[in-house]
Amino acid sequence: MKIYRAHDYKDMSRKAANIISAQIIMKPTCVLGLATGSSPIGIYAQLVDWYRKDDLDFSRVKTVNLDEYRGLSADNEQSYRYFMNEHLFSKVNIKNKNIHIPDGSNEDADAECRKYEEIIDTMNGIDLQLLGLGPNGHIGFNEPADCFTRKTHLVDLTESTIEANKRFFEDASQVPRQAYTMGIGTIMKARKILMVVEGEKKAEILKKALTEEVTPRVPASILQLHPDFTLVADDAALSLMNI
Ligand code: GLP
Question: How far is the CA of 206 from the centre of ligand 1 (A)?
Fold first, then answer.
């Protein structure tokens, strides 16, 4: 595990964007696993800036996103597809055919999950997976559970996740109750994993995930077992860790 300390959100975003940028430069045809939430917004802004300066080329990059709310179509402003278009895809030269996000409007969960796993397999897996950390230790939408889930699946969101994510909606009642997410196995197969964590409110769960027992009750704890895992976090998030 490599841990890079950042002073603040901006510094964290630049450091993480540097790592993603290096991946694109070293392998222009790479497959990037991407994440949503507040944590990666600064990274995407930095990557867009470097693209505009002609320092980055997304023309052969392929992407797979971690998750999507079930019941929201791509044109719904609350969908993760919409979020990704807003923050990255519409601002760089990535090809539409190379963008993959679970289709939240597909009611057939089994078919959607199977299709998504096949897409990732066909691309020969993920080179670099970006992750945020949920307040309850979730990664993607893999909520605390009795066992780790291997593949892309449909999840029932926990009350704490609905509560944490309601800030993007009018109120909690608008937050979808289910989502499609890559499984823990899908995420762990990525060749590199990069997690970004910011703020004091995540300090306790971050410490738990990375320094205590590996358990599906804290899904992110599995990252301790990944052979190429990098964390970029700010001082506040690292404040309870002895590093
Ligand atoms: C959502 C996403 C996760 C993300 C998490 C943390 O639940 N499904 O992929 O990591 O939020 O979000 P934030 O970065 O806003 O704290």
Answer: 13
